[in-house]
Specification:
Order of helices and strands: HHH
Largest sheet: none
Number of strands: 0
Helix content: 55-70%
Structural class: mainly alpha
């Protein structure tokens, strides 16, 4: 699928400069930038969706782990006294 975009002269110059410095084509630079943006925004969308699903589950069940419980658990990481993840509770 061929798509064209319009960019102002300043941005075009900046892209061309990066392309020269990186020894890549301007098209490669723009495609890479778009790919990274889409990846980042999809990850952000997934994080938001998972957070909303977790919130809905908490509202239904009341199951949770407190910050203090998680902090205490994380403090054991990498030690001889490393513990299992605390169990969810109401």
């Amino acid at each position: 699928m061929a798509t064209s975009i319009k960019i102002d002269d300043e941005l075009k110059t900046r892209v061309q400069h990066l392309a020269e410095v990186r020894q890549r084509s301007a098209q490669w630079i723009m495609r890479e930038a778009i790919q990274q943006y889409v990846d980042r925004e999809e990850a952000r969308e997934n994080f938001h969706r998972e957070a909303m699903e977790s919130w809905a589950e908490f509202q239904e069940t009341g199951l949770h782990i407190t910050l203090d419980e998680v902090s205490a658990w994380l403090e054991t990481w990498g030690t001889d006294a490393e513990t299992e993840l605390p169990k969810c509770h109401t």
